[in-house]
Task: structure prediction
Amino acid sequence: MILNNRIKDAFAAVHAEDNLKRDTKDFLSTRTASTVKSGNPIRLKRAVAFACLALILMIFGGWRFYMTPVSAISVDVNPSLELGVNRLDRVVAVDGYNDDGTDLAAFVDLLNLNYSDALEVLLNSQAMQSYMAKNDPVSITVIGSTKQKSEEMFARIRSCGYAKSPNVECHLGSHAEAAAAHEAGMSYGKYQVFLELQVLDSEITAHDIQNWTMRQIRDRINELSDGPNEPSSGNGFGGHGGGSGHGGNESSPGGRQNRGNN
Result:
């Protein structure tokens, strides 16, 4: 299905380019014919130059329109990454916010996919299977270009099969909070859980938990709050569940001496 859609998109792009070339050619022919009738060679050169400039602006303007992300989706397990989504709901940027996130972004090809398809490819990728199999918490946070777009994207993601997994949380976010997360060097989802932890431990810093998994942060929150702590829903969340860590280095950090060593 995804392949069929990508083929259709490719043909649509070719068709659009053919239309652009045809329209520009017609414009150039009309403008040139009018100028030739005037018998003024200077005006002819100007007309040709204007038509070429118009073509360049249309091509590069369309490219910039397509390549400009206006919405974002944060995905956090241990890999932390964000998908930049354009106005056509296509993923045009994938940024890792830790080493695992950077490796994952390079390993899984998500560019030009619809964001909901991209999440399906990502969560079903081989690189993610160890986390999914152990029920590690997976946080998906949507930051749309507008409130309406955020809610639309959120509803679409929640309707997908992967969002119904018991260890997947879905949230709505804001651009202001995303900017604060990026300034701290984190993806949005991880930053929100960090803020929860910071309420319980005011001395902990963003640097301390930079390489912690979402499970490690959640376990530390549970330790400090003397009991299981449910994920903060923000504007809404999907399922959540437990799961074991990833061995010795992935276990819940205990005292402050363990911070920054993972």
Residues 209 and 260 are 6 Å apart (CA to CA). DSSP finds nine helices and five strands in the chain. The longest strand covers residues 71-76.
